[in-house]
Hints:
The protein is 20% helix and 38% strand.
Amino acid sequence: MKKILGLALFIAVISGCSSIKDTKDTTSVTASGTIQKLGMSTFQYGTHLLKAGNKTYALKSATVNLDTYLDKKVTVKGKKVEGYPIDGGPELVDVTLVKL
């Protein structure tokens, strides 16, 4: 009986550990494209846009001056902001790093 209980406990611990390893960070974003100033839009969030091929991201940042990278090909890293997109707009990314 003790062996069965021990085996069941061992399996439970292993199962719990594997589910922790499988979690992915779905909020991180890395994308390459051209940064543009946000002009008139149907959505009202973000300060800049990143045109990344066929996808567009709305950008904001409290730590990076995005104006420095206007009309330049860059790679941005950041986190998706929860609750976006809205009003048919793009995903909103809080940018923490920009690479030329």
